[in-house]
């Protein structure tokens, strides 16, 4: 009688045995106590291996290691970049707001051209009349003289934000190297 | 915070939350230490190489590709750091992890360990440390680190067949010891 090979027993332990191989093994185990003992012993070993001891590092390992990591000059994406992003976003929103205000103010100063009233027009007029009330107070701001001051202010803001974006890109590139 | 996946923690570290790396350390320190202790057979060396491995991992996080498992990537760093450590030490101390013994000669160690053990659990645990380093290392990867044979093969550079041979041989050798000392009868 041929006994079951070590390889087959190991495959059985790893659930890799199926079909004919599995039924052959089961048939043999019914009549062979020595192979049954080998299988049972192998299963004991496998179960003990699963409960194999995990060793533990000393208690202050994480703390000491984090201190070393903090000392490394190299950092991932410093929080500074959030500040840059915030500043850039703020400038963009401010610029857009001022531009829109300027356009509306200029529009409001142009006298309305009389034409056939349409339903959408009356609705628009009702809405914009309130707007122009508010905007008329800003009208003086955009008189030809103050307009040039606002324009140069805008140009300055845009230049500053472009510079900040450029700087943060340069820094990010340097960090990659 | 404890339930975050490895990838989520690493994303956070990369966004600048350096302190979150402590979560990764806590998650892998004991498993990494066990692996290294079985490779190096020395607590002090194991802790030193483990610390080195975490530092290497931190510095090269940007090279970690998110589509692979962090554990596999990290254990590869641990394994290679241990090999580097061994090769620098080998000049002083002959230790070889590359040879694959044809036959595990354990009977002398078995008798000694049997005398010191109260039960089969103690016996097997102590016998694991009597196996050649390569064997106990692969057992550690398979049973503690839940690596597949394929992952073990990729990390160690051994062929899949060799990994399987080592795993089976370790089991068979210990099975023979269990039979020899009648532990199976005790438990049945
Ligand atoms: Zn048989």
Question: How would you explain this protein's 3D organization?
Answer:
The complex is a heterodimer of chains A (177) and B (188). Chain A has 177 residues and is an all-alpha fold. Chain A has 7 helices and no strands. Chain A is elongated, with a radius of gyration of 40 Å. Chain B has 188 residues and is mainly alpha-helical. Chain B has 2 domains: 1-90, Orthogonal Bundle (Rna Polymerase Sigma Factor, Chain: A), CATH 1.10.1740; 98-188, Arc Repressor Mutant, subunit A (Orthogonal Bundle), CATH 1.10.10. Chain B starts with 5 loop residues before the first helix and ends with a helix. The model of chain B has no long low-confidence stretch (mean pLDDT 89). Chains A and B meet through helix 1, helix 3 and helix 4 of A and helix 2, helix 3, helix 6, helix 7 and helix 9 of B. Bound molecules: zinc ion.
Short description:
Chain A is mostly helical and 177 residues long. Chain A is built from seven helices and no strands. By secondary structure, chain B is an all-alpha fold.
Give a topology summary.
The complex is a heterodimer of chains A (177) and B (188).
Chain A: H1 6-13, H2 19-31, H3 33-50, H4 61-71, H5 80-109, H6 119-136, H7 144-176
Helix pairs in contact in A: 5-7
Chain B: H1 6-14, H2 21-40, H3 43-59, H4 70-89, H5 107-116, H6 120-128, H7 133-144, H8 149-156, H9 160-180, H10 183-187
Helix pairs in contact in B: 2-3, 2-4, 2-7, 3-4, 4-8, 7-9, 8-9
Bound molecules: zinc ion (ZN).
Residues 3-4, 28, 32, 34-35 of chain A line the site of zinc ion (ZN).
Describe this protein with a few key phrases:
heterodimer, A: 177 residues, mainly alpha, 2 domains, elongated, B: 188 residues, Rna Polymerase Sigma Factor, Chain: A, Arc Repressor Mutant, subunit A, 10 helices, 0% strand, binds zinc ion
């Amino acid at each position: 009688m041929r006994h079951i090979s070590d390889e087959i027993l190991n495959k059985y332990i790893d659930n890799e045995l199926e079909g004919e191989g599995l039924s052959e093994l089961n048939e043999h185990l019914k009549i062979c106590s020595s192979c049954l003992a080998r299988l049972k012993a192998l299963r004991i070993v496998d179960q003990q291996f699963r409960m194999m001891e995990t060793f533990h590092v000393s208690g202050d390992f994480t703390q000491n290691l984090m201190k070393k990591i903090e000392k490394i000059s190299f950092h991932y994406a410093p929080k500074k970049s959030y500040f840059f992003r915030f500043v850039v976003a703020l400038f963009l929103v401010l610029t857009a707001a001022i531009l829109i205000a300027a356009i509306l103010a200029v529009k409001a100063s142009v006298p309305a051209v009389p034409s056939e009233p349409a339903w959408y027009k009356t609705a628009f007029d009702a809405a914009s009349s309130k707007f122009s009330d508010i905007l008329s107070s800003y009208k003086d701001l955009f008189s030809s003289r103050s307009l040039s001051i606002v324009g140069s202010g805008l140009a300055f803001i845009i230049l500053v934000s472009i510079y900040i974006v450029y700087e943060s890109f340069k820094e990010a590139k340097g960090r990659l190297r | 915070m404890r339930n975050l996946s490895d990838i989520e923690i690493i994303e956070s570290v990369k966004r600048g939350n350096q302190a979150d790396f402590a979560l990764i350390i806590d998650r892998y320190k004991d498993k990494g230490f066990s692996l290294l202790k079985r490779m190096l057979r020395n607590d002090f060396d194991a802790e030193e190489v483990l610390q080195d491995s975490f530092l290497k991992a931190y510095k090269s996080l940007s090279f970690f590709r998110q589509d692979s498992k962090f554990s596999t990537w990290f254990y590869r760093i641990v394994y290679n750091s241990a090999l580097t450590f061994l090769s620098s030490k080998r000049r002083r101390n002959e230790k070889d992890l590359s040879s694959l013994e044809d036959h595990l000669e354990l009977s002398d160690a078995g008798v000694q360990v049997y005398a010191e053990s109260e039960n089969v659990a103690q016996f097997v645990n102590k016998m694991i440390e009597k196996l050649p380093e390569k064997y106990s290392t692969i057992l550690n990867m398979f049973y503690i680190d839940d690596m597949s044979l394929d992952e073990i093969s990729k990390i160690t550079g051994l062929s899949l067949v060799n990994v399987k041979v080592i795993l089976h041989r370790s089991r068979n050798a210990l099975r023979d010891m269990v039979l020899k000392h009648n532990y199976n009868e005790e438990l049945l």
